[in-house]
Amino acid sequence: MLTQNLQTQERKLKLRWFVALSSLPLLGVLTAFGVMPQTSLTSVAEKTVVQAVELPHAMTINGNTTTLWHSEQVQRGDTVVEILRRLEVTDAAASAWLRNNTEAESFRRLSVGKTVQAETDVDGNLLSLRYLDNDRKQTVIGKAGENFTVSILPPVLEQRLSMRTGVIDTTLFDATDAAGLPDAAASQLAEIFGAHIDFHRDLQKGDRFAVTYETTYSNGEPVGVGRIQAAEFTNQGRVYRAVYFQTSEARGDYYTPEGKSLQKSFLRSPVEFSRISSGFSNARFHPVLQKWRAHKGVDYAAPIGTKVKVTGDGVVSFVGTQNGYGKVIIVDHPGQYSTVYGHLSRYADNLRKGQRVAQGDVIGYVGMTGWTTGSHLHYEFRINGQQRDPQRVALPDAKPIPASQMAAFQASIRNQLERLGLLSETRLARLD
What we know:
By secondary structure, the protein is of the alpha+beta class.
């Protein structure tokens, strides 16, 4: 029992160093998040000492009083005076200059959520002001005698790893929103596991995910979302794990920890976060023709203009209009496979017959052309020219990690798997 308690305490100490965990939100979503520099994960010290230190209002070095830094975020309805008050700037001259000078217009136009840093002396006089303007330019307003000057500096970019974990209550998008996972990363998550999990039909309440992904910071402010580095998704009790590995300078992919490609040769769905309005069937009452006939494809209900992605690498064999399909694209894939995308509103710019496309490329947009009563995509999966149910057909796997790269792969993913493990533990070991 003592050994078990010690292990539990050690695990909690690791989590304190590694991740910040919020309390359980109302919609059944657990959110754990943190940000770390993109370096290898170091081991946790065996002993941690916490000691309260009383900080003076101003620190002195060699008899000289240092300056003070304050940081605040712009809030809705803020004025220059209100921002300066929260930044503890009591400099009337600086306030007047920032409110009236044309050079300070970018400061007055800052969007809600933007971070402002102020350097002052101990009396509240403004020495400098730093922020990223709405165009993400690093702006520094500095004291120059009795006046102020504005400088635009090159941004200092930094890549960090961000982490999120959550639980499905209704839909994937609702859960990722509640967990604070950016939309760009949420879309990647769906793509990574899209060949194995049907996010339209397979999700269940209580399914969960954990993600580590790149975030680009400019002078401490997040400005962009990069690639997911590792992810775990538990669907109906089955755990799927993915880690990113660069197999060459030009190509990388997601693999299981054993080196098997997580991607299939085809995606299960060509449309993200939509609803299946009509499945594959040998007998369906056609809403336009008003008679029973086979429906040899799957219809995805989605608003007009929703992006349609090609589900596998291939060559466009047809772009144009065909009877009930309306505007349609047909893609031939290696081997005996082809896919059809019908009822489109328009095609991707410059898409043409004979063009090579890669899995995930946007080739068109949802519409309601042809024989249809509402906006949706009609998708067909054909083998040797015969339509097969794309939701049930066995899809061929992509290539695994080559044997010659397996050692490098295992070494590369070690830290990624450790991070995923710690994120998963946040569901079982909440911080006190």
